[in-house]
């Protein structure tokens, strides 16, 4: 799967609010985040403890799990994955 191929799934979450998860997808974080940012109106959401100077980005470090926070049309979303095991998830941020 190419990073741009996740866009229809992201649009599905934006339209329905229903989580999308695929445990077999393994993509470079920056590539998939940049693909999501091609959606008009999608922006990185600032968080208090962003990592590596990247707005809205968090990770648990050595365990390689990561999260990118976004806003879209007044709602908050999270894209997450595992750099070790692979897999992606996109969902409404309910916190």
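^ structure tokens above, recovered residues below v
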């Amino acid at each position: 799967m190419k990073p741009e191929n996740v866009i229809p799934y992201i649009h599905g979450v934006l339209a329905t609010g229903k989580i999308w998860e695929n445990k077999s997808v393994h993509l470079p974080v920056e590539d998939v985040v940049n693909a999501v940012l091609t959606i008009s109106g999608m922006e990185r959401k600032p968080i208090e403890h962003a990592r590596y100077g990247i707005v809205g980005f968090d990770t648990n470090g050595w365990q390689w799990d990561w999260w990118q926070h976004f806003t879209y049309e007044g709602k908050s979303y999270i894209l997450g994955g595992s750099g070790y095991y692979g897999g992606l998830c996109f969902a409404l941020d309910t916190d």
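The beta strands are 20-22, 43-44, 57-59, 65-72, 75-82, 88-92.
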